[in-house]
Design a protein that fits this description.
Layout (H helix, E strand, L loop, with lengths): L1 H24 L1 H28 L4
Amino acid sequence: MKLVVLSWLVGLLGFVLLVAGVWQVYQPAAFIVAGVGLLVWSKLADQASAGQAARGGG
């Protein structure tokens, strides 16, 4: 369980650092990167919850 939480936090930190780095280069691009990242994240979360529901996990 700790590894799952730790990997989620490291992924979030990586995303934040990526957006911060892009922000330093070109600010509007940071919004695009953040938006695409959030869209990908929501798609992955939707697929995970659909898979869990199909297995009967809730």
